[in-house]
């Protein structure tokens, strides 16, 4: 590993949780955040303000839509205008002639389509139902004056609108029926012989409406050209993966330090880069040859005060003679010759590629900003956990254990890692891996498993709690298919009980000696029962275990207050484990 010089600047400070919760970001789950006008003279872009500024709790699943500001900048004059004043704008899309800008607007009650007449400075929102939040952008121009949008049938709100609050909202409605005299509360699901097995969650039903933006009225009669354009949109949007047209396809972007190309205007050759550096996050315009750069927008300026950790790769050769890498995030004030405690971050299937993942950047705004560990003096170790097509006579848990041991051994070769102060941490499939690794190895002083599966046999048959009060059986029972796909099972537990048991950490609880902290939300589709089973098994055996439950949270801890609490508990747990050989209070 090439050893960078440690930062010497005395006025800088380590990253703190307030810095993370105050980060703005750019996310385009429901359409791109960036759109050049057809003539290349204007740029529309969205910035999602910090989690501290979130108006909705389930913000991570809306991918920032609940805190997104839409801006428009004139590139020649550098005049900046905020397009949205009420509601949160997302997925900007220019009309073919550049006279109008379509975008989604999310409020506390709805997700609608809005139109800005750019030259007139006039904006109006179409009141024809909520947009379907699926795939990419749920609307598209079919000519200069007509736009098609996909809306949720029946005027309902889209599922993603309050996904983790869905059961919380629907359960009281179902329970209230108990107080209505003579009203039964039964809800029946009925599977019949020969009925086809569902494969994943079906998309919510939607309808397609075409609006004349001159009048704001839906139109029913379309000419042949417009009808063909409508049909193309419908066919694309109905596919499971709805690709956004990528103007960068086939183009080679110029190099820009710390920059990632996010948009390209072919006619003018202008590139837009998102630059995430020590001074914050910026949108930078670059010409085709990279000779001229202009910064259009800058946020997250508080990162200039931060002394961040240092990311680097260690090359090594695995047991079969193959060249491998392990990625390290080092504390900002590390010194050669000193050894530091380490947290191994695990997620099966992850590979060490050329691009640094967001969780290893101080710009990551959510609950997985691993620079918080580095700021507290921990080395973060990310091993390559790519999954081979053939596991041979072993299983996935054993495969992960071997890869982690090899990566940790390579990391210790730097002389910076204290082998007696190793911890393991993971989320979701990584939460399963953290528990499995505690059973398979004795490397770790403690483990932290967030939203992890402990018992594949019960997970396979559990309903998705978010849809428990719906009549949508396909949505409720989709976890069985997920379990078989993720863990490469050919059928349900009754057909291969030994395989399910062999990689279920709860059945190996007797082999776990290191203290384990389990973290889970009660609205997680990975049922909180998974955490309950593991906690109960370890507690029954007299093993050290702690169970942290977040009411109202889903698969990812999303509320700012809960993220703050989570990291306080993580650092407290690690500190406590550092002071003890075994056991927790």
Question: How do the strands and helices of this protein lay out in sequence?
Answer:
Layout: H1 17-21, E1 34-36, E2 42-48, E3 68-74, E4 80-82, E5 88-94, E6 100-106, E7 111-117, E8 122-126, E9 139-141, E10 146-152, H2 166-175, E11 206-212, E12 217-219, H3 224-237, E13 259-265, E14 270-277, E15 280-286, E16 293-299, E17 310-317, E18 323-330, E19 340-346, H4 371-375, E20 379-383, H5 396-412, E21 417-427, H6 429-440, E22 446-450, H7 456-461, H8 473-476, H9 479-486, H10 497-502, E23 516-521, H11 528-540, E24 545-550, H12 560-579
Parallel strand pairs: 19-20, 19-21, 21-22, 22-23, 23-24
Antiparallel strand pairs: 1-2, 2-3, 3-4, 5-6, 6-7, 7-8, 9-10, 10-11, 11-12, 13-14, 14-15, 15-16, 17-18, 18-20
Protein architecture, described:
The chain has 585 residues and is an alpha+beta fold. 21% of the residues lie in helices and 26% in strands. It has 12 helices and 24 strands. The strands form 5 sheets. The chain has an 8-stranded mixed β-sheet with strand order 17-18-20-19-21-22-23-24, sandwiched between helices. The longest helix has 20 residues. It starts with 16 loop residues before the first helix and ends in a 6-residue tail after the last helix.
Mean pLDDT score: 90
pLDDT < 50 stretches: 2-9
Strand order in the largest sheet:
17-18-20-19-21-22-23-24
Q: Count every helix, treating DSSP H or I runs of 4 or more residues as helices.
A: 12
Give the tally of β-strands: 24
Helix amount? 10-25%
| Overall outline | globular
The assigned structural class equals alpha+beta
Strand content: 25-35%
The largest pleated sheet is described as: 8 strands, mixed
Please state the CA-atom Rg, rounded to the nearest Å.
Answer: 26 Å
Separation of termini? Answer: 39 Å
